[in-house]
């Protein structure tokens, strides 16, 4: 019997970590992910886990500890946000290229400049090319489920994984949740048995070589191949998780897309807000739909092309700037994914919700109104737009 | 058992020859010297900060290490090995690892005095059972002899060149050994290559087999950066010690002890004059540089003697 509870997204992640009972957790406090190591330390203090918690002096060291522990043959986890993730940057690439399984909870928060503790996706979007898998959650239930799945996905692919949720919005928002029993989670994740590890007395291992030009590129190619093939493991783990929990997961979630003429593409908690807008518009007879991107790395190009190939117009929502001068990261990749379609929908991009700026159902109505205009033959005009900003063109 | 160099040298090597370090470089000697202090049956995981040692000993697909080895980045050798040690504690408790392992990490002075100081300090404060060994060659040698906080005053380095207006590095050398002592860890020592390696060996053995975090600072000269002939390495080390530029001492559970006292304290010129990096100090009109260096060394030595009383 599943356990009905209510808790924040951070507590949900910490609970998943307790149930997984990892070997090593290296973590450093940063808002809004701090609660995760706090809850987890309390579990440790009460003897509920066997984990060695390494309370490091920085996120740089948190990631270094996870890399060392994972290379040594341990199951390693951590949690961070914003500047903490930025401070790990260098080591993200080291973890990925060393092909070390690590599961990291990210409570997404804006990067400093100016400093903000509010939510957006600039932290993990900035790390999108680091070779980590990225899985995003809409709510506390999903982040709990994703974190448990993350352990098996990272070990199957030997690519580290970020399990992302929206800082404060879901990390601190308390909501109903259905937890799995401890034994079920432990059986599901099983024991970690790496093939090669530092503490293997029979077969010592050297990790982190100097890779000169004759070798470096093959390492990158192997990582790229692993990323291309990671989808199989993600779906396989999702299938097994569904058998356990009854909850089903894929790369994307299509919401009321069967006969949709226009769609919004969003990541994270805003998908929930967007769904509320879709429901209301549907009552008014508007053929609106929504596509939620759950897995951003590997990028679900094929799935997005299939989902969006059916609509006339779509709005790609980006909770991160990439300062390309022509759109956010989601937009660039989604538009590229649709290029080979014979019939492409018109696409527009909205940068929204930066630094904790509130995103409401009204914003989505606004977006859908813009899409309606495009569908009825209106000029598309500037595709790179801002919404919810005082001097941002799109907001009238 | 009393120290015997011959016996020690007959142990199986843990760092294979054929690595790519320069002739006359102290780094490889430091590694061999420290790893010889491991008991034969004991397993070890060797850590390493980015630097000359790393790029010269683990150049894919070859490794010079017989033990397991990990390098991740420049500034995090302390934290990386912390993670390995934490994993060991858990896996040992769970019965997944049966053998006894020791954890030893090597970093150059750039990776230790400077960019890796925070990571080192954190690892020592948290109390991991590991040894951090700094091989101190007094500049960023891997990138081409740039000044570091470990570079002594007046040394000519590529980012503190001796010119007509500025006489090499302006600041004195940071005293990292004392900073590590201030962490109140069980064992801290400063050593170099001297005679039959007894001092280095005994300190390495003590550091490896003392429970908790231990720190060794090994003066490991660099022929390219210091500008000496490869064969002069032992002589340079001896002069560093006999001029009291690099005193040999240890701090065991808070007790300071001098492990070598020069029979006759030599003037600093004898150490300086053997190295190209100090050549400008011997030009006419620059006598004050030598005088001030001597004053500084004397002052530091007196302070150390008081601590070791």
Key features of this structure:
heterodimer; A: 396 residues; alpha/beta; Rossmann fold; B: 309 residues; eight-stranded mixed sheet; 12 helices; globular
Structure description:
The complex is a heterodimer of chains A (396) and B (309). Chain A has twelve helices and 16 strands. With 396 residues, chain A is α/β, with parallel strands linked by helices. In chain A, α12 (361-375) links the parallel β15 (346-351) and β16 (384-386). In chain A, α1 (9-20) packs across α7. The radius of gyration of chain A is 21 Å and the shape is globular. By secondary structure, chain B is an alpha/beta fold. Chain B has a single domain, classed as Thiamin diphosphate (ThDP)-binding fold, Pyr/PP domains (Rossmann fold, 3-Layer(aba) Sandwich). Helix content of chain B is 36%, strand content 16%. Chain B is built from twelve helices and ten strands. In chain B, the strands form two sheets. An eight-stranded mixed beta sheet of chain B has the order 4-1-5-6-8-7-9-10, with helices on both faces. In chain B, α2 (26-35) crosses α8 (198-209). Chain B is globular and about 70 Å long. The mean pLDDT of chain B is 97.
Structural topology:
The complex is a heterodimer of chains A (396) and B (309).
Chain A: E1 3-7, H1 9-20, E2 24-27, H2 35-45, E3 52-55, H3 59-72, E4 76-80, H4 82-97, E5 103-108, H5 122-126, E6 133-136, H6 140-157, E7 161-166, E8 175-179, H7 182-189, E9 206-207, H8 213-245, E10 252-255, E11 262-267, H9 270-283, E12 288-293, E13 295-297, H10 301-308, E14 313-318, H11 329-338, E15 346-351, H12 361-375, E16 384-386
Parallel strand pairs in A: 2-3, 2-4, 4-5, 5-7, 6-7, 11-12, 11-14, 14-15, 15-16
Antiparallel strand pairs in A: 1-8, 6-13, 10-12
Helix pairs in contact in A: 1-2, 1-6, 1-7, 3-4, 6-8, 9-12, 10-11
Chain B: H1 5-9, H2 26-35, E1 43-48, H3 52-57, E2 58-59, E3 62-63, E4 68-71, H4 77-93, E5 101-108, H5 109-114, H6 117-126, E6 131-136, H7 176-181, E7 187-192, H8 198-209, E8 214-219, H9 223-226, H10 233-242, E9 249-252, E10 255-258, H11 269-272, H12 287-307
Parallel strand pairs in B: 1-4, 1-5, 5-6, 6-8, 7-8
Antiparallel strand pairs in B: 2-3, 7-9, 9-10
Helix pairs in contact in B: 2-8, 4-6
């Amino acid at each position: 019997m599943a356990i009905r509870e209510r808790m924040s997204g951070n507590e949900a992640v910490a609970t998943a970590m307790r149930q997984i009972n990892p070997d090593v957790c290296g973590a450093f406090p940063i808002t809004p992910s701090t609660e995760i190591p706090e809850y987890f330390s309390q579990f440790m203090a009460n003897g509920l886990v066997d984990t060695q918690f390494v309370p490091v002096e920085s996120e740089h060291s948190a990631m270094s500890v996870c890399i060392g522990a994972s290379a040594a043959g341990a199951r390693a986890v951590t949690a961070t946000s914003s500047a903490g993730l930025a401070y790990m940057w260098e080591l993200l690439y080291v973890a990925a290229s060393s092909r070390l399984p690590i599961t990291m909870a990210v409570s997404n928060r804006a990067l400093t400049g100016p400093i903000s503790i509010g939510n957006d996706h600039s932290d993990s979007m900035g790390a999108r090319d680091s070779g980590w898998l990225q899985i995003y959650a809409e709510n506390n239930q999903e982040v709990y489920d994703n974190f448990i799945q993350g352990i098996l996905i990272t070990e199957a692919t030997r690519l580290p994984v970020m399990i992302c949720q929206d800082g404060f919005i879901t990390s601190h928002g308390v909501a109903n949740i259905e937890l799995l029993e401890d034994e079920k989670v432990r059986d599901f994740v099983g024991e970690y048995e790496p093939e090669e590890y530092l503490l293997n007395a029979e077969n010592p291992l050297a990790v982190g070589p100097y890779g000169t030009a004759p070798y470096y590129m093959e390492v990158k190619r192997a990582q790229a191949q692993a990323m291309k093939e990671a989808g199989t493991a993600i779906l396989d783990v999702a299938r097994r998780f569904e058998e356990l929990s009854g909850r089903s997961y894929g790369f994307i979630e299509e919401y009321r897309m069967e006969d949709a003429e226009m769609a919004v593409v969003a990541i994270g908690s805003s998908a929930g807000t967007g769904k509320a807008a879709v429901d209301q518009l549907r009552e008014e007879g508007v053929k609106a739909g929504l596509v939620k991107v759950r897995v951003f790395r590997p990028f679900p190009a094929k799935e997005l092309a299939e989902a969006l190939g059916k609509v006339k117009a779509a709005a790609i929502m980006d909770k991160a700037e990439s300062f390309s001068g022509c759109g956010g990261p989601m937009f660039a990749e989604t538009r590229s994914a649709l290029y080979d379609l014979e019939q492409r929908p018109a696409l527009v991009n909205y940068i929204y919700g930066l630094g904790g700026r509130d995103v409401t159902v009204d914003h989505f109505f606004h977006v859908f109104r813009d899409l309606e205009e495009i569908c009825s033959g209106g000029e598309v005009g500037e595709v790179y737009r801002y919404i919810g900003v005082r001097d941002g063109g799109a907001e009238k | 058992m009393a120290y015997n160099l011959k016996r020690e040298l007959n142990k199986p090597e843990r760092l294979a020859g054929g690595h790519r370090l320069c002739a006359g470089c102290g780094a490889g000697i430091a590694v061999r010297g420290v790893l010889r202090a491991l008991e034969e049956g004991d397993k070890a995981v060797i850590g390493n900060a980015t630097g000359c040692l790393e790029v010269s000993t683990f150049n894919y697909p070859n490794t010079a290490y017989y033990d397991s080895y990990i390098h991740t980045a420049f500034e995090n050798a302390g934290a990386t090995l912390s993670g390995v040690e934490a994993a060991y504690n858990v896996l040992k408790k769970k019965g997944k690892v049966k053998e006894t392992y020791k954890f030893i990490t090597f970093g150059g002075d750039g990776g230790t005095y400077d960019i890796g100081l925070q990571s080192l300090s954190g690892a020592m404060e948290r109390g991991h059972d590991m040894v951090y060994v700094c091989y101190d060659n007094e500049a960023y040698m891997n990138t081409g002899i740039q000044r570091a906080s470990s570079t002594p005053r007046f040394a000519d380095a590529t980012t503190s060149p001796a010119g007509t207006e500025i006489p090499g590095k302006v600041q004195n050398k940071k005293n990292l050994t004392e900073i590590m002592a201030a962490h109140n860890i069980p064992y801290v020592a400063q050593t170099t290559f001297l005679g039959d390696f007894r001092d280095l060996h005994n300190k390495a053995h003590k550091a490896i087999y003392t429970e908790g975090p231990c720190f060794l600072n090994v003066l490991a000269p660099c022929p390219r950066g210091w500008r000496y002939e490869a064969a002069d390495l032992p002589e340079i080390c001896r002069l560093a010690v006999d001029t009291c530029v690099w005193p040999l001492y240890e701090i065991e559970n808070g007790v300071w002890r001098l492990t070598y006292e020069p029979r006759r304290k030599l003037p600093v010129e004898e150490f300086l004059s053997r190295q190209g990096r100090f050549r400008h100090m011997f030009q006419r009109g620059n006598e004050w540089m030598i005088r001030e260096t001597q004053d500084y060394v004397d002052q530091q030595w007196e302070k150390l003697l008081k601590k070791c009383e």
